[in-house]
């Protein structure tokens, strides 16, 4: 038996021996460590945290293994099966954007890469084919699995908040957060992404945080989520101009 097959067999046995629930995270950690030791790579498009002093993952003007970015589980567009964008308008603001918008996508939540990817492909198709946008509207999406999914990224103008697309970054939380807020795992991923953006000059250190309803006549990002956003020290409140255009049906 080859060393690789022996390693994989030992991992399977480890999972079978571990009781369900309690101890499952320990098993996952040991499996991850064994795979890392054997040099097994994560799925294409998924960037896992590593020692930023040893490796250097530079992508779209951001080193995703720098001090502030290394904790992020970042899924690039190819990792969730995104289609090509139809057109690109670049977002280039000296010192970074001063506005960060939290949105919810509505619809289903997700807790795995496969499910999140399927949902995001649906939203991209809807945005491109039905709404005739160039791409999925958000700059980034946050899955219930705690991963950050690349949408338009830090460098491209989004299509998410009327009158503010060219001066802000949007984070779309996958799911509907009218009756409950996103999980602490999702919120932590978003906070880490903002810190990363500040480190690389994509978000200004004096940024303010908003829900879409602070700028547009919308329910987004849902009542429960918005109530939580209002408690954040960075909360900016209602913006002017405020766009009263009725939401699409």
From TrEMBL:
Residue ranges occupied by any N-acetylmuramoyl-L-alanine amidase domain in the UniProt entry: 85-222
A GO BP term here is: peptidoglycan catabolic process
Which keywords fit this entry according to its UniProt record?
A: Immunity, Innate immunity, Signal
**Which molecular function terms from Gene Ontology are attached?**
N-acetylmuramoyl-L-alanine amidase activity; zinc ion binding
Pfam families per the UniProt record, alphabetical = Amidase_2
List residues of the Peptidoglycan recognition protein family domain.
72-216
Q: Where is the signal peptide?
A: 1-23
Q: What SUPFAM superfamilies does UniProt report for this protein, alphabetically? A: N-acetylmuramoyl-L-alanine amidase-like (SSF55846)
Please state which protein family the record places this protein in.
Belongs to the N-acetylmuramoyl-L-alanine amidase 2 family.
What name appears for this protein in its UniProt entry?
Peptidoglycan-recognition protein
Taxonomic lineage from the root: Eukaryota, Metazoa, Ecdysozoa, Arthropoda, Chelicerata
